[in-house]
Every structure is written in C-alpha cells, then in structure tokens.
Amino acid sequence: MNRAYRLALTGALSAALVTGGATAAFAAAPSASPSVSSSASPSAGISARPALTAQASTAGVNAWQEFRVSGKATGIKAGTKVTLQQKQGSKWVSLPATVAVDKSSAYSMRVKLGIKGKNSLRVTGGQATSPEFTVTVR
Q1: CA 100 and chain centroid, separation
Q2: Which of 20, 32, 47, 130 sees the fewest Cβ atoms within 10 Å?
Q3: Is 136 in contact with 119 (CB distance < 8 Å)?
C-alpha cells in the first residue's frame, strides 16, 4: 500500500508538472474582503465562521520522507474533508492528501513530497483555507 500511495503521488505530481498544473490545478483565492452574512443559517449548531489552522511536524525533510500536517478546524462539521494544497508557480494544486475532520475538530494527515526546495503548502476544506506554511525538501 505504501508503494501504491507513493506511485499515485508521483504520478499526480508528474502530471501536474508536465501539463503546467492545468489538469490538476485548483485556484482557490481566499476572500480578500470579510463579509458578514446575516442570512446564513447555522447548520448543526455551528455558528463560527469557518477557519483552519495547519502546521507541519517538521520544517525540513528529505525527498519522499514522510511527515505530518495537522491542525484544528473551527466552524466546520466533523466528517468534512480537508485537502493539502501545494503552490506550483502561481497556482495552488490539490495533492492526493485528504482527510476528514474528526469529532474533536482536529485533523492529521501523512504527507510525502518529492519536489525539492521550499514548498509552500496550505490546507483547504469546508469553505475555509489555512494560512500558508512551508516545508523545505532536501
């Protein structure tokens, strides 16, 4: 399974790089102006504005070395999927690293990166996007 995951990740990253990120790119620009919507109905008792935090377990790794990205979700229902995104050029590309938020509003995912250098990452899901963070791949 570990080998299959690595091959899938390698294939997805290679395809995104070869095509310039056009097929797998997902441009998600965070809202620049905060808007207050009084007509939004809270669902399942969630009244806070959706927000995500994210942090890597380490600042630097070797190529294809596993590390963890974890964080908390606010205003997002348990079971909502969050996805890791990587900045490739000027576009944010969704990576095949997705996990559901648990009932304590937390998440943690295992990640392997192969693009050497400083990788800008963020987590998105539930109409929220985490602040950008970096992991250096050697």
Answers
A1: 12
A2: 32
A3: yes
Whether 26 contacts 85, CB under 8 Å? yes
Is 55 exposed, middle or buried, given 0-12, 13-18 or 19+ CB atoms closer than 10 A?
A: middle
Beta bridge partners of 121: 86, 133
Question: Rounded CA gap, 118 and 32, in Å?
Answer: 25
Alpha carbon distance 80, 128 (integer Å):
11
Q: pLDDT 10s digit of each residue in the chain, 138 long?
A: 455 545 455 555 544 444 344 333 333 334 444 444 444 444 455 567 999 999 999 999 999 999 999 999 999 999 999 999 999 999 999 999 999 999 999 999 999 999 999 999 999 999 999 999 999 999
Contact at 8 Å (CB) between 124 and 28? Answer: yes
Radius of gyration of the chain (CA): 16
User: Closest Cα partner for 56 from 134, 130, 138, 114?
Assistant: 134
Q: Which residues fall within 8 angstroms of residue 112, CB to CB, at 6 or more apart?
A: 5, 6, 9, 64, 65, 66, 67
Q: Taking Cα atoms as reference points, which of 123, 122, 97, 121 lies closest to residue 109?
A: 97
